Amino acid sequence: MPFTLQAWADGACRRNGSIDAVGGAGVSFPRYPQGNRSEVLPHPPRATNQRAELYALILALEAVIEKQDAVCANANHPPFFIVTIHADSRYAIHRDLPVVNADLVKEAHNLRGQIEDSYKGGQVEFKWIPREENVKADEYANDACDRAEEESRRRPDNQVYALGIYVRDTSSSSSSSDDY
Fold first, then answer.
1. Residue 160 within any structural domain of the chain
2. E strand or H helix at 39, and its extent?
3. Percentage helix, strand, coil, to 5, in the chain?
4. Close Cβ partners of 3 (under 8 Å, ≥ 6 residues apart)
5. Angle at 166 (CA atoms; ends 165, 170), nearest 5 degrees
6. With the CA atoms of 46, 105, 61 and 59 taken in that order, what torsion angle do they form, in degrees rounded to the nearest 10?
């Protein structure tokens, strides 16, 4: 008998396209609450909505692997896993290489392969859904954005992390010719 698992994934980015953008990703498993995730988008690189959406798929796949390991590791007859990950981003679920975010697409592809090739195997399907059907994952993604905003405010000297370097905002302080 197969083991069926469904997840809803969403990413969010505030100030998308700007140097001070922050992002988060959320995953909801209605029948596997231990798999729920709400994480700040790692940086660098700079947060974008597309990266947040792809990162949400990765979080969902990682949670599925954890569940698959827990169910199958000591089972005499491990079940075949059937996984459906619902997302409201056509970009994220219909993505193939080459793309700007190839690093995340490749990571998601590798995680999907790990699920499909482990134990007795599995099947992973990505399914597009309207945004209105992705409420819980959206809530988790926005919670992560809230935490990212708070982390951003706590950085000393109004520093913004972008492109792997810190940029200091000197607009509110006097600057000398020695400032770079």
1. no
2. strand 37-40
3. 40, 25, 35
4. 68, 71, 79, 80, 81, 82
5. 140
6. 0
Residue 45 burial (CB count, 10 A)? 15
Give me the torsion for CA of 116, 107, 75, 82, rounded to 10°.
-40
Question: Whose structure tokens read 């059907």?
Answer: 133
Q: In this structure, is residue 174 part of a structural domain? A: no
> How would you classify the pairing of strands 22-28 and 165-167?
unpaired
DSSP code string of 149-166:
HHHHHHSGGG-EEETTEE
Q: Which amino acid, one-letter code, is at 10?
A: D
Task: Indicate whether 178 belongs to any domain.
Answer: no
Domain range spanning residue 57?
3-155
pLDDT tens, position by position, 100-151: 888 898 999 999 999 999 888 899 999 999 999 999 999 999 999 999 999 8
Strand partners, 125: 84
Token readout for 34 is 């231990």
**33 lies in a domain?**
yes
Whole-prediction pTM: 0.81
